[in-house]
Design brief:
alpha+beta, five-stranded mixed beta sheet, 2 domains, 39% helix, 5 strands, S16 Ribosomal Protein, Chain: A
């Protein structure tokens, strides 16, 4: 059985509240889980102590059992010092698309053309 430590959404529409749970990876996001390990309230300020609550002992237990945290939960665990910080590099996502690159090249060519004409006139 493949275990995950992940978020399960609760709360009403436009008012999210997440539970950090240990669940079988085959179960749906908000479906059956084995144990609730903490909570995450994204509506609270980032510096609030109540924003992320984690039961450290139980998370350690599940990590030793082989449970794999999802990306978002791994970030919470890194901030709490439970997991070693992993490197993340998604260079493709920050890179502009093909159309944006073409527009930038055209804009640069337009800006260069009047400057070259002014230099030639002198």
């Amino acid at each position: 059985m493949s275990m995950k430590i992940r978020l399960a959404r609760g709360g009403s529409k436009k008012r999210p509240f997440y539970s950090i749970v240990a669940a079988d990876s085959r179960m749906p996001r908000d479906g059956r889980f084995i144990e609730k390990l903490g909570s995450y309230n994204p509506l609270l300020p980032k510096d609030s102590d109540q924003r992320v609550k984690i039961d450290v002992e139980r998370v350690q237990h599940w990590l030793t059992q082989g449970a794999e945290p999802t990306d978002r939960v791994a970030r919470f665990l890194e901030a709490a010092g439970l997991v070693a910080k992993s490197t993340r590099a998604n260079m493709k996502k920050a890179e502009p698309g093909d159309k944006a690159k073409k527009r930038a090249e055209e804009r640069a060519a337009k800006m260069a053309a009047p400057a070259e004409a002014a230099d030639a006139a002198e």
